[in-house]
Design brief:
single chain; mainly beta; eleven-stranded antiparallel β-sheet; three-stranded mixed β-sheet
Length: 517
């Protein structure tokens, strides 16, 4: 099998604000231009830069014909009040030469409407082939400020956020690993070929034995294998996965890395006091970390005002380390706030495997080669790395998650860096990925076109009605985590895919995706 070189090697955390560099993306020179009283619009200006960016349209290049991007969105506050989300028009943006910009709507299946379906952010990416640092000045977003209740004379503060993403193109793929991993997808009771996903059309499962005509057959045969969780469908159950459920065939964007502690703090610090109390992981009643001290490599501290990442020995803040101790409700709130959405477990597999046939027992990097991190250099610093070459954080080799993208070091292969086919990092190990399960009826109601609108309930919860609820009904876990054994971090392992666990835990984190415009 050909292993493609990874051209996106995360340097650190992947969120920035108008206050300067917070990691992989640097958003600077932010301002609000003159408010036009006639049109009710104003430009939100910024410059942007990030390292290890790429775009390749050459199928023969050492990376997929694909690109990375920044998901950019804006929070504002009026007259010193609460932070709110900026509603963007679908046109009228200023884009510098060499860059492309696509507007992301709340509902990607419907037309733009500034009142009911506004732009909640934009994707910024290279307009031509290139690799390396991507720096562009002179972006302006067309903000419909009157839609957000802002007047010409109001005092406005803004924060511009950016999250590194990878584009996953429209492409057929296989889900499952030839029945090697626990409850992996297969075509029949006597046919271990993985599911073949060749469209976003509805899928109906059955109890068939399967044709069994060869390895990796592109047959429309789908048998479900249970993990025996309460209310989960049984093995061989007949059910339909609707067309609106995201099956991973249609193009989408995925966060390059899991939500980091810096990203979490940036989110948390735009919430109201009441919302913060709901999303606080540190208090004795939070059923999570229950302390402000550094615990299992989580350094978040909050009692009042803004959350912090206190400096530890050597000035380490753990800002770039993956965020753990977050529940499903916590992650859903972050995704709603950022204008993203959860991923399905089928999207999880395609982002890792790409269009290749399945390898029995493989990990996200397309191989059964597994080397765990057993120590940490530069702990908690932006350049944190494993103390020896490794491609996964698992089996208690490190007592907590590591820096997002820490396995990548230089221009290296997928196997060495633990990268998914399209460049997403840490899909196996580090912290658990929250995914929407196909094996629960509640999960199958999930509509991939519906995204967060940037606004939470007054109590700090996500309010997207087509997402699984705060009790994690319809959800599960994929990818394993830092305490799990070798079998639990396999790409197609589904032992937790329908495990309904709503609470905070030292292994639980996550990331978001977005249907591509």
């Amino acid at each position: 099998m050909k292993f493609l070189k990874v051209l996106i090697l995360l340097a650190a955390v992947v969120v920035s604000t108008s206050n300067g560099v917070c990691g992989g993306i640097d958003v600077t020179n932010t301002s609000v231009g003159t408010r036009d009283a006639g049109t009710g619009t104003a430009p939100i200006n910024f410059d942007i830069s990030w390292n290890n960016s790429w775009r390749s349209t050459d199928p023969g290049a050492p990376a997929p014909s694909n690109w990375d991007a920044a998901w950019v969105f804006v929070k504002f506050r009026k007259n010193g009040g609460n932070w709110a989300h900026a509603s963007l028009n679908d046109t009228g943006h200023t884009v510098p030469s060499g860059a492309s910009l696509d507007v992301g709507l709340v509902d990607t299946s419907a037309s733009f409407n500034i009142a009911t379906n506004p732009g909640v952010g934009v994707f910024v990416y290279r307009s031509a082939d290139g690799v390396g640092t991507f720096t562009k000045t002179g972006f302006s977003l067309n903000w419909k400020y009157t839609q957000d209740g802002v007047g010409v004379n109001d005092t406005i503060d803004i924060r511009v956020f950016a999250i590194e993403m990878v584009h996953v193109p429209t492409e057929a793929f296989f889900a499952g690993d030839n029945a090697t991993s626990t409850a992996s997808f297969r075509q029949g009771s006597g046919d271990n070929d993985p599911w073949y996903i060749g469209s976003e059309s509805a899928i109906t499962t059955g109890a068939q034995a399967g044709s069994g005509t060869g390895v990796g057959e592109m047959n429309s045969e789908y048998r479900y294998v249970t993990t025996s969780q309460e209310t989960e469908d049984i093995t061989g159950a007949v059910f339909t996965i609707p067309a609106v459920f995201p099956k991973g065939y249609q193009k989408f964007y995925m966060m390059k890395g899991e939500v980091s502690q810096s990203q979490w703090v940036a989110f948390f610090n735009t919430l109201t006091t009441t919302q913060k109390s709901t999303r606080d992981i540190t208090s004795s009643g939070a059923l999570g970390k229950n302390t402000d001290n550094l615990t299992y490599r989580n350094n978040v501290s909050w009692t009042s005002g803004d959350a912090t990442l206190p400096a530890q020995g050597g000035g380490a803040t753990y800002a770039s380390v993956a965020m753990n101790y977050i529940s499903w409700a916590d992650l859903a709130a972050y995704l709603d706030w950022a204008g993203l959405r959860p991923m399905s477990e089928l999207e999880f597999e395609t982002a890792a495997r790409g269009p290749y046939p399945a390898v029995s027992g493989e990990y996200a990097w397309g191989s059964t080669s597994l080397t765990g991190a057993t120590g940490v250099n530069n702990a908690g610093l932006p350049n944190e790395a494993p103390s020896a070459a490794a491609n996964c954080v698992y089996n208690n080799g490190v007592a907590g998650p590591m820096r997002v993208g820490a396995m990548a070091a230089g221009d290296t292969t997928r196997i060495a860096s633990g990268a998914g086919y399209y460049g997403a990092m840490d899909l196996c190990g580090n912290v658990y990925e929250r995914t929407v399960s196909v094996g629960r009826s509640e999960g199958r109601t999930f509509n991939g076109a519906k995204h967060g609108n940037g606004v939470l309930t007054s109590g700090g919860d996500a309010d997207v009605t087509t997402w699984p609820d705060g009790w994690a009904v319809g959800l599960g876990f994929r990818g394993g985590a830092w305490q799990q054994p070798w079998s639990g971090v396999r790409l197609s392992d589904r032992s937790g895919a329908s495990m309904r666990l709503w609470n905070r835990h030292l292994e639980r984190g996550g990331r978001g995706v977005r249907s591509a415009p």
